[in-house]
Amino acid sequence: MAAIELAEVEEYEEFEPRRLRLVSIQGVEPVRTGRPLAARRAARARMLQRRRRTLVALGLVTGLIILALPGAAFGGVTGAGLPGDLADSSVLASGMVYVVHGGDTVNSIARLMNPVDPSIARRDLVRELGSSVVVPGEHVLIP
Question: How far is CA 65 from CA 51, 52, 60, 121, in A?
């Protein structure tokens, strides 16, 4: 058994007036409280195993949820008939009202609806408007 005792060192007194040094004590039994070391290690191993299982279960549930989402993951088709990644990138969606600004044309509005293939959106817009001309300030219902 060892203990720490405060010792004074005279030669370094102006910088370090006191130092700790290790001294041995004979005949004194160490005081041990709490559970044995083997029991603490076993409890820690069980806790780590539970954490690993929980992490694996959480990952599996997250993966299943991602796979179960219709059209949101892996390029599925949305309700508007557009691929999921295209529907997320388009500015205008079906049922929205678009106010025509100066310089807008049917083609520019169609590109906002469907950036990949604006010809389909242009055809639907012309059918909805009854004309291929738009006027600034006009409200257009996106088909």
Answer: 21, 20, 9, 33
